[in-house]
Design a protein that fits this description.
alpha/beta; two-stranded antiparallel sheet
Length: about 250
């Protein structure tokens, strides 16, 4: 699956109502006009998983390479534990988004969670070096998004920019894996990821080589993580079970 992906930059989070196929199609068509080659699509209507037939229907509608993610928003520890039970051997990306630091710690330790998202400007303030360390140990990813600094309210924009800059720099300093998405809600706010790379380089202090890697290589690493999780022969990083006839 991963080898067939076009070697191009990514949009890692486009949200859509999966009960409205016309909306999905409209967003895909707009992404094609922006020359986006690879994207990760996320349902906003509390789907616990995406039906296989719907995935096929979406993939047939576009030349873009489309992958899928589910985003969980637990409200307390019990809620998180009940939610995560349903995601053993989950075939898509699984992310979590919560201001609850205890849940963040549990999620950072859980191999089923691929992404802990700090896209929300109110959640990014809860990110700690301790959680970053756990995410790094588990080889999962932090997600940052640019939508919060592309708003019209100048006071909020300035505040959001300072927080995004601060925690991005912390992530780079601690050498944790991370992705950056546009995460825009309105269609006409969508940008080609090349424009997002320029923003990261010129405004957020990310070296250009690093910015390109975040939008091109990191999503592939993230998808490979899912593939390894589904491969029953791989029992841990670097350790693979081999049958006698494979020796």
């Amino acid at each position: 699956m991963i080898r067939s992906v076009i070697r191009a930059i990514w949009e890692c989070r486009i949200k859509a109502n999966f009960e409205d196929f016309k909306e999905i199609k409209k967003k895909l068509e707009f992404c094609e006009k922006l020359n986006i080659k690879n994207l990760i699509l996320e349902p906003i209507n509390n789907l616990k998983e995406i039906p296989f037939d719907l995935k096929n229907k979406i993939e047939r509608e576009t030349d873009i390479k489309v992958f899928f993610r589910i985003n969980l928003k637990p409200i307390n520890i019990h809620n998180f534990k009940e939610m995560i039970k349903k995601y053993n051997n989950f075939p898509d990306l699984l992310s979590i988004e919560t201001p609850n630091k205890e849940i963040q710690i549990l999620a950072a330790k859980d191999s089923r969670i691929d992404i802990i998202s700090y896209s929300d400007p109110n959640i990014i303030k809860t990110l700690t070096p301790g959680v970053i360390s756990l995410i790094k140990q588990n080889k999962s990813f932090i997600e940052f998004s640019l939508a919060s600094i592309m708003i019209n309210n100048k006071a909020y924009q300035s505040k959001n920019f300072r927080n995004l800059y601060r925690f991005l720099q912390l992530a780079m300093k601690l050498k944790v894996q991370y992705i950056i998405s546009g995460n825009f809600d309105e269609l006409y706010d969508f940008r080609n990821p090349r424009a997002l790379i320029s923003i990261c380089y010129s405004l957020l202090g990310i070296p250009l080589v690093e910015a390109k890697k975040v939008f091109k290589v990191s999503p592939l690493t993230l998808l490979n993580r899912v593939q390894k999780r589904l491969n029953k022969k791989i029992i841990e990083s670097g350790v693979k079970l081999i049958k006698d006839n494979e020796r």
